[in-house]
């Protein structure tokens, strides 16, 4: 049940303790893909997962601005600090839990949010306010995951499937040419770069030409199935904390 | 230019220092109107204002969860603390300002956000990071403003105009019957109530029957015009701080 | 019972759960009125209200510095940030509540504090630590309220009644001449100004010549009566939080 | 110049960079002395020091609630957390510094505030916002200092001199009998007690019978002289920070 | 140069802008390995790296308590919150940078610290206070990395090499028998567990029997070499921030 | 039982509620004594006290960086803010208390930490999380205490006894010559200095020539005995909070 469209009486009549909170980012995704990519994809995956899930759950509106200072050199990129993002997401989860939706999956569409949503999940879970876990869709798409990049094949493909008009076909070649092969600059397993602009000229990582609509469909199916499995697991999990040793 | 859909290169090529940030709330609006009412209306007004404005401006995605703990007794209501909301909005504004969009109007659709967005505007303006002012649409609709309520005639009307399928026609009578006449419980100009549930049984204030589509159209026109005038004023204002006396 | 002058044993022997906390500001009030105006008036109104009230209540010392950065361009204006002011007032209220004075009225003499004291009241009330409401005296003086201004007729009148020697008679004409007609610069119901110095040359708003001693007496009576009614209402109110819907 | 009574134009015309900020506490002082003792004494000493000082300085209103949780078991005691008190005092100092009063003496009347005001002084001084130092009057009264106690001979004496009606003569014997000899419970130079109620039955430490009016007069003279010397030293000090070694 | 043992004059005479800050954790490592494992190993690796590095660098004392609430069910585990740990590490780095040691490697011995030290590095680097990167030794030991576990083969081996008396030989079999095969409980690439006690009975993950002294020697060599390479890269890196696009 | 070396099963089998947490500082101690002086001495005293104590207690690793900004002009000095230090120490104490070690002595080796550790002790004790008190060794060494200084006779002596190789014999004369006689610059019992570099050229206060090994031995004995007495007292103390008056 989409909370944006539901009334409070609809929510009252629902029997579930599950909630899904999409979190994205509004940030550069190369010259060919929109700033809202991570919101569009997080919402699409959240909905796909809920569709494939047999039981009820509430679906919150997507949180549109996340941890994205790493893209700050690219015009239009929006961000908040890690601390503010964690607080915002945590309090959103707590407000849902106050109504009994205290098993929460944070469906994440942005790499920069990964650490933050895991930390938030740990905080609310250990404090006993809710049980919350993150799900980052592009980690759960089988072998595709290795090609994630940024504005690369996966995101371009998923956009083409979900909102094709948001992909600028006429800039795909340019996007591909000016992008980087991989994320970061690594020495001894340490990434020396903090800003994407240190290693990618136009903000792209990976080749967006490898992201056609069909691949997007497959990605959505894979991610939706994975999320549905996670919903099942979260619904059934014993979330009590373990005993002291 | 809608940042969700634009690419960073589109934003780069834009010549403006103006930004519009819609802020709403996901909270009960009676048995007949959706939890997302304040997001839907804030976005509609933001877009109407931009349409009526002769120059360019960027339009951020709406911030969907605000200061709404006062509705916490009604299922589905989401909220964050005042402090977290202020931080989130302020940092959103600052990230826009980092790209030169340092004249910002926060288009607000929720009464509970009013104090917070004014404080944020003052903070960023005095610190010199940006010039930001709030605009709360239902204060700027002429004589209609007096009938605002909550899930009442104005919001119902505007929803009917913008997304009519979100209004439950079959619950309007019930919504009207169980609502309160006015907001709060007042003694000596002090509101003794902190939670809406102290004075409204079903969350409604005002009579939603008085909110037909035509009124909604008029409201959007009035609010859109007002916002366009404000955009004009903000664009031209001398935002330097006054001299010490 | 004035806490400044009472001993702890006096307080122990008292039977009441009511407390009154005056909050003011030390800030410019034009060339004719003292920086301490908002403290003087908040204390006078607090005492007038308690006098008119039939039961016991403790009266805290006035908090002398508030949210007044908007007057920072005028020498001698003191202020703290909104956050610090809220914390200070909230903890003051909580310390009173720890002794059983858990029905608290914050008697406010300064417009810049209004949002902050309302927020504090909501926080402590929802958390169950105390029931606290703000009372801003110049909102509760009937039709006079419309003429509030700043260092204008109302404050000048009340000072003349309470501490006449603090008003500089010989600067009233100058104060009147250099003042503004109204507070702020408004477009589409948005105040474009954040600093008083943007719209008033000498810090005055309204005409202090309209504030004679007799008017001050009437204001104190009106405000004192209003506060006494509020004390009565707060004493008797069911402060339990409403049930979930 | 007392900021409470001065107008901003008076302050503007002043030539000084010196400010004095009294800080007290509203807390139990035994059955015979008022909760406001530390405010009364801090203000008296501040004024005595300024009187004895040859040059101009502004005098802020006293901050009435401080770090006093250690007295929380005694009815009427008010307090804020150390953090909030530090923030409040620091921002008060910074607002004064914004007007050029950037050499500040915090005149303190309460032992519980000592660490906090020293920390605040260090913070603003090292940050370059102002040069601020604390002055705690009962440390600067020669050999009397050893008998400080709490509601003991020194405070009782000073009250008798400044506001004699605040001392309850008829409870002095009781105050003396129920008091403790010294502050705290010490083992290996560590105070094992955190709350005054752990070691004093009625809140008194020291014998208030040893505090007559004459002694109060002498204390005020000693403290006033000491503060005047400090004002002189602060006015003349090179407050630039030392060079790196 | 080890800061613990050096004098400030020694440090003054040094010519380098490089610093190394070991961070560990004091937390359960199974029945056979000490709570201090992550401190011992972080320090050993830091020293090994510095030894292999041709130039000077200062070496800070190890920060002994980190982000380890996930082990809270096991007696003796110490931890601080993520926020406090980040602040502590960041300010430590900033104090080093104030002396010109503004290229900093945080040598980390604990998985729970990984996100925090990366965030700290980003914060100080983007703010321009220092350039700081994390190095987590067990990620940089080639194919061994895959077997990390907790109190498992790698840590046991490295302890045997560095401080063999800290490994309880007589509990290795028990440690092995009661341990888990892998870290966490995973569904759809999400770890459902937040506390180690959810999936390991005795706190061990991996088989400590596979961690002999010789392997420890190899690990130290690999990690030391990797750190030396990173020191070289950090020393030579252009740390200016990239230009806006 | 030293937590660094113990396993969690060792800790589980222990029967005690006592913990000792050494806190030091890494900061300049003159040209002859190491930056780590306050860590070395805090640890030595902690161990000496535990040795002399008849019962069990756990001993945490030393916290190596404290409140030392006052030495910032001297290369190599490390510090964190007071707030961060307080949070770090408090959370360390709370994590110990979570395992039942809820009677804690913070063994402090640095003057700059004194206020902070007292505040932390008060906070956790009043909140009921643990009973914690600070012990600063150089206050508990009888008549020696008067000669404390900085890098002076006491610290030099104790270092000579504990880790003699850390004292640079060949710089003792220089250290003595360039040091100050006493700490600070005092007027009216107020220290006008905030940075040590304001009053000591080389960072030394007191004459390190008066600190031979024999004196160090005596100091360790005195401090160890004092700490043992304090452990006894803390173990037996009724730590319940007193009743309201």
Description of the structure:
The structure is a homohexamer of 245-residue chains. With 245 residues, chain A is α/β, with parallel strands linked by helices. Chain A is built from 7 helices and 6 strands. The first copy, chain A, is globular, with a radius of gyration of 18 Å. The N and C termini of chain A lie far apart (41 Å). Chains A and B meet through α1 and α3 of A and α1 and α3 of B.
Give the overall shape of chain A.
globular
Oligomer class: homohexamer
Strand order of the largest sheet of chain A: 2-1-3-4
Per DSSP E runs of 2 or more residues, the count of β-strands of chain A stands at 6
Low-pLDDT residue intervals, each spanning 5 or more residues of chain A: none
Largest interface: A-B, 55 and 55 residues
The tally of helices of chain A reads 7
Please trace the helix and strand order of chain A, writing H or E for each element: HEHEHEHEHHEEH
Radius of gyration of chain A, rounded? 18 Å
Mean pLDDT of chain A: 98
What distance lies between the first and last C-alpha atoms of chain A, to the nearest angstrom? 41 Å
Largest sheet of chain A: 4 strands, parallel
Note the beta-strand portion of chain A: 5-15%
User: Approximately how much helix is present in the residues of chain A?
Assistant: 25-40%
Structural class of chain A: alpha/beta
């Amino acid at each position: 049940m989409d909370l944006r469209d539901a009334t409070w009486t609809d929510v009252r009549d629902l029997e579930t303790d599950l909630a899904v909170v999409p979190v994205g980012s509004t940030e550069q995704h190369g010259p060919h893909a929109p700033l809202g990519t991570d919101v569009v994809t997080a919402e699409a995956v959240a909905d796909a997962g809920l569709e494939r899930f047999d039981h009820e759950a509430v679906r919150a509106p997507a949180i549109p601005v996340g941890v994205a200072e790493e893209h700050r050199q690219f015009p239009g990129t929006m961000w908040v600090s890690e601390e503010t993002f964690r607080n915002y997401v945590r309090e959103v989860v707590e407000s849902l839990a106050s109504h009994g939706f205290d098993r929460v999956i944070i469906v994440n569409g942005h790499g920069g949010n990964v650490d933050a949503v895991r930390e938030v999940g740990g905080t609310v879970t250990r404090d006993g306010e809710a049980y919350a876990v993150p799900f980052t869709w592009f980690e759960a798409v089988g072998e595709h995951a290795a090609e994630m990049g940024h504005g690369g094949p996966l995101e371009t493909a998923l956009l083409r499937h979900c909102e094709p008009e948001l992909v600028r076909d006429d800039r795909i070649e340019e996007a591909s040419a000016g992008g980087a092969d991989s994320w970061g600059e690594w020495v001894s397993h340490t990434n020396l770069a903090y800003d994407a602009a240190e290693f990618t000229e136009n903000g792209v990582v990976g080749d967006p030409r490898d992201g056609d609509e069909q691949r997007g469909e497959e990605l959505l199916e894979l991610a939706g199935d994975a999320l549905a499995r996670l919903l099942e697991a979260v619904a059934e999990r014993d979330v009590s904390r373990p005993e002291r040793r």
